Amino acid sequence: MLDPKLLRSDLPGVAAQLARRNFVLDVAGFAALEEQRKAVQIEADRLRAERNAGAKAVGQAKAKGQDVAALLARGEALGSELQAIEKQLDAVQAELTALQLGLPNLLHASVPVGRDESANVEMRRWGEPRQFSFDPKDHVAVGERIGMDFEAAGRISGARFVVMTGSLAKLHRALIQFMLDLHVNAHGYREAYVPYLVHATALEGTGQLPKFEQDLFAVRGDPGFFLIPTAEVPVTNLVRDQILAPEMLPLKYVAHTPCFRSEAGAAGKDTRGMIRQHQFEKVELVHMVRPDQSYAALEELTGHAEAVLRALDLPYRVISLCAGDVGFSSAKTYDLEVWLPSQQRYREISSCSNCESFQARRLQARWRNPASGKPELLHTLNGSGVAVGRALVAILENCQQADGTVTVPSALVPYMSGTALLTP
What is the dihedral of CA 81, 86, 88, 90, to 10 degrees? Predict the structure, then answer.
């Protein structure tokens, strides 16, 4: 959520910044609603002051033995008027809050200009795409020979699900364990196990609600739950309504969870294989830091995700997303894209974002600044370290052999009980 004070003091400036995202802010409508709120607030304050003064006058009149009937009657009338105006104030404030919750984050000055992904800027590449002596197959053709079963998943759950068995299921598990160990032991993260079901308030805090409700799976019941779309939601909510001591920062969490997404806006996209599914696994990295350290933390977090791909010897590139492609809650985002031979292009495998204080304001996640002694908003960051299914896809395609076998990356062999080759 954007700073309400900034919205009140520089609404045209906010609108100009949001226009970088192709977002049109109704300045006149927002300003009119804010003026209405001010007028109602002033009236509520006036009535409250008059009621308080009247209550004091009743006490003084009683002390003097005077008749207080008129004063009491006026006090009752003021109470009724105040109740009505407070109800009106709540309604206006709710409308303002709904508008504020629909506003995306402001972008960092370094974010490239552009309307869509075609304007994203490549920052660097690592590794050279393998030159095959045969026509490489896609991950579906490779995987179906070693334990990938979309037909069985279709019978159980429908489209955009997969069943994996045997050595392929073990490779999937090995990837998770390898990533967790790397981030905990080499990168200094604290491992977290978190709920996979969360209340709406948790999703509102990280920015998925109310805007992206159609992308979520809701679970019926009282109270209602949602399945998490990413571990970012429960992990970032660990600091909800907290004031952290400065010596606790930075906080760096890593969590492996399943992720559940309806893919409501992805009709017809990546319908073959494991690229885009309703249920997938991810190892998520989350940082909570002092504001002046968040952009150094973004570079660090991105480097930790890169380390996974380097250890697996998978060619990749780092992309700085342009203004029109940065996500709703993010102020700046780097995407990591891994090379897929079957598509002859790079595909996203990780997205690393600095949300600055956008989520923290919704969550009331703060730290006590020793310089002022006062609580201030944290900056939060998150990124995939990395998406497990897409890493599996990349290994199947980049490490396939002409005879249908798949070479296991050396970093994963210890997690595969020494198995170095997957065979049909």
Answer: -170
* Mode of pairing for the β-strands spanning 379-387 and 406-407: unpaired
Q: In residues, how long is the chain?
A: 424
Supply the pLDDT for residue 29: 95
- Which string of b and e fits 53-69 if b means at least 16 CB within 10 Å? ebeeebeebeeeeeebe
Burial 158-180 (b: 16+ CB within 10 A, else e): eebbbbbeebbebbbebbbebbb
Rounded-to-integer distance, Cα 388 and Cα 241, Å: 31
**If you search the block for the tokens 């802010």, which residue do you land on?**
25
Q: Which two tokens stand for residue 216?
A: 């979520």
CA dist 276 and 242 (Å) reads 35
Whether this model's pTM surpasses 0.90: yes
Cα separation, 10 vs 166, whole angstroms: 59
- Distance CA(85)–CA(80), nearest Å, equals 9
Rg over CA atoms, the chain: 27
User: Which helix H or strand E contains 16, and what residues bound it?
Assistant: helix 11-19
Active site residues: 261, 276, 348, 351, 390
pLDDT for res 267: 72
Q: Tell me how far CA of residue 135 lies from CA of 132, 141, 274, 343, 397, in angstroms.
A: 7, 12, 20, 12, 11
Paired residues of 244 in beta bridges: 367
Question: Residues 29-46: what's their mean pLDDT?
Answer: 95
Q: What is the dihedral of CA 112, 116, 118, 122, to 10 degrees?
A: 40
Domains (ranges, CATH) in the chain? Answer: 26-101 (1.10.287.40), 117-422 (3.30.930.10)
Q: What is the pLDDT of residue 252?
A: 98
CA 305 to chain centre: 16
Q: In angstroms, rounded to a whole number, what is the distance separating the alpha carbons of residues 235 and 255?
A: 8
The two three-digit tokens of residue 189, written as one number: 């993260």
Question: Residue 51: pLDDT above 80?
Answer: yes
Question: Beta strand 345-354 with 121-126: parallel, antiparallel or unpaired?
Answer: unpaired
What does the alpha-carbon distance between residue 281 and residue 327 come to, in Å, rounded to a whole number? 20
The yes-or-no verdict on residue 261 having pLDDT over 90 is yes
The Cα–Cα gap between 136 and 10 comes to: 56
SS3 419: coil
pLDDT digits (tens, 9 = 90+) for 129-177: 999 999 999 999 999 999 999 999 999 999 999 999 999 999 999 999 9
**Of the candidates 299, 302, 291, which has an alpha carbon nearest to the alpha carbon of residue 244?**
291
The DSSP line for 243-255 is EE-GGGPSEEEEE
